[in-house]
Design brief:
4-stranded mixed sheet, single chain, alpha/beta, two-stranded parallel sheet, 198 residues, globular
Length: 198
């Protein structure tokens, strides 16, 4: 829930756009770099308040699959990105191992049905496959450079967190799972896509 910039100090400037006040407060936590600014509002409101084509990189982490209209959001991103600027998105992977295991265990009807987490979080779009995510960005006018799955996990997020909290697994185990990605390239829990504005 923390801002990416609690882990990374950008060399020049950064802007966190967040419409939910409580989440924005969490994002501010631990940020001491004065180059990181915060905007409380929707992306469409940020676009109205911002000079066009002023951003070099935009990162949308865990957003597109929660939106009813991802194309409107991507259109707003396109307006603030400079020509040639990088757009990175991270979304849930429709073909993740834990989703496949959920179907096999009878916890989910099929691979396309909403998981309990998707229902709880009211994720409107739902999980993407690599192909549907690439298509979403291409429809918005982006040129996709790469789309890869990341972080394989065998349990849903809440159970993974519980296993960590109860020390059934540790971060060494998670790193070993992550090292399996070359063998499980399509089955990570998330998709990370890199695309550019032409």
């Amino acid at each position: 829930r923390n801002s990416l910039f609690s882990e990374y100090e950008p060399p020049q400037s950064a802007i966190v756009v967040e419409p939910i006040s409580d989440l924005l407060r969490m994002a501010r936590n631990g940020i001491t770099n004065p180059a990181v600014r915060f905007f409380n509002g929707l992306m469409s409101e940020f676009v109205s308040a911002q000079e066009p084509e002023t951003v070099d990189v935009a990162i949308a982490s865990s957003l597109l699959h929660e939106m009813g209209d991802p194309q409107a959001f991507l259109s707003d991103c396109m307006k603030v990105l400079k020509p040639g600027a990088l757009f990175i998105a991270i979304v849930t992977n429709r073909n993740s191992i834990h989703r496949i295991l959920g179907v096999a265990a009878g916890l989910q009807d099929d691979i396309d049905s909403a998981t309990s987490t998707e229902q709880l979080m009211q994720q409107l779009k739902g999980a993407y496959s690599s192909g549907t995510l690439s298509g979403e960005l291409e429809s918005a006018g982006f040129k996709v450079e790469s789309c890869n799955s990341i972080f394989p996990k065998i349990l849903p997020h809440a159970l993974m967190q519980r296993a960590l909290d109860e020390e059934v697994i540790n971060f060494d185990f998670l790193e070993r799972m992550d090292a399996l990605m070359p063998l499980l390239s399509d089955f990570g829990s998330e998709l990370l896509i890199r695309a550019r504005k032409p």
